[in-house]
Design a protein that fits this description.
The protein is mostly helical and 374 residues long. Helices cover 70% and strands 1% of the residues. It folds into two domains: 216 residues, no CATH class; 103 residues, no CATH class.
Length: 374
């Protein structure tokens, strides 16, 4: 067996090991609420405690939302500034249906999911008529309109600035209360797994390959008979649907809806997570979201700690601002880790194997239009 055959055999072995490793990781994460583990400085307590489970569940839901944005930005190259609109549709939609009707949780969730699909189709059909920065601005306009409706409570259903509290009459008892945080943790983990599998399926499908080709060269895809608009609309709607699903789980976890979930700043945060993890990488989106969420939560505790309060003013002032610390971390990653955290991991693995990643740009999806049959 020559070197090329050995390399191909090694690659096949690694690809075969990935599903097994992923399943093992999910099983380990699923067992965390049953274990007494802690990571000082990262987790607020043991993994079976409600506070820690709440934080971890928030990490999984944030990762799920980042994955849905990865479909738009990482796969199709669509930089949307309004992705928070569909997340808010899930949060507010489920809260309103449960508050105004007697429908149980699962039928109410199905109804809201259909509503999210219809909303995404209508917005996407209009927004995708333009490209580039124009597309980003149109999506931003729709998101801002949704945020204004939520804040002003124009129709008396969103609660205005105060938001809405979850009506628990139609929610199973196992998903209510601090003592059931463990169940909410498992719900959040299930949402992340479903989202990841859907994203994986889309990326490996014919539509996903075509979307990647459109990202690289839309004109070429159109010339060879493809339909870029239809493919982008499908990806847009799928990403929005996953965001709506995540929003409904978020409502159960947080027990309420607030206008912050519909703001354009929230979408920009998703963009930061995807870039931090590595544009074009599924695992990068997950890792970027988890790292960002943990930093956001733990740096807030650091900023208000006595250790920072005792520092000289020249250090105390910047270190007491969590967003300053997050921004600094993001700048350092962009400057010194091209391809984000996923790119750094790929380079490290390639160095250990003595190989160079394809194209020399780890963490960035390879152009695939050459292997597309449209």
């Amino acid at each position: 067996m020559n070197a090329a055959d050995s390399a191909r055999e090694g690659a096949r072995t690694r690809r075969a090991a990935i599903p097994a490793g992923g399943l093992a990781l999910v099983l380990v994460l699923g067992c965390l609420p049953l274990l007494a583990l802690t990571v000082p400085g990262v987790l607020p307590g043991y993994t079976y405690e409600p506070g820690t489970l709440q934080l971890l569940a928030l990490c999984w839901l944030t990762a799920s939302l980042a994955l849905s944005y990865h479909l738009l930005f990482g796969l199709a190259g669509l930089m949307s500034f309004g992705h928070a609109l569909y997340f808010a549709a899930g949060v507010y939609g489920l809260a309103i249906v449960l508050d105004r009707t007697d429908i149980p949780l699962l039928p109410a969730a199905a109804l809201v999911l259909v509503g999210g699909i219809v909303l995404a189709f209508c917005v996407g059909a209009i927004s995708l008529r333009v490209t580039g920065i124009s597309f980003a601005m149109v999506t931003l306009a729709f998101a801002q309109a949704g945020n204004v409706l939520a804040r002003r409570d124009q129709f008396g259903v969103t609660g205005g600035e105060e938001g809405l509290t979850l009506d628990t009459d139609g929610v199973p008892a196992g998903l209510i209360g601090v003592l059931n945080t463990r169940n909410l943790y498992w719900v959040a983990l299930a949402v992340l797994v479903v989202t990841y599998l859907v994203v994986l399926w889309v990326e490996r499908s014919r539509a996903g390959h075509t979307a990647a080709a459109v990202r690289e060269n839309e004109v070429r895809v159109r010339i060879i008979g493809g339909r870029p608009y239809a493919v982008k609309l499908v990806v847009f709607v799928l990403a929005a649907t996953l965001a709506t699903l995540t929003g409904m789980a978020y409502l159960l976890l947080q027990s309420g809806a607030s206008p912050a979930t519909s703001s354009s700043d929230f979408t920009l945060t998703l963009l930061v997570m995807v870039v931090l993890g590595g544009v074009g990488s599924r695992w990068g989106a997950v890792v970027g979201a988890v790292v960002y969420t943990l930093l956001d939560q733990r740096l807030s505790a650091l900023a208000s700690s006595e250790a920072v309060a005792g520092l000289p003013a020249v250090l105390r002032v910047p270190l007491s601002e969590p967003m300053f610390l997050l921004g600094t971390c993001f700048i350092l990653v962009v400057l010194f880790l091209p391809g984000g955290l996923a790119g750094a991991a790929q380079r490290l693995a390639a160095r250990r194997r003595g190989a160079v990643p394809p194209g020399g740009a780890p963490g960035v999806a390879e152009p695939v239009e050459e292997r597309i049959t449209v």
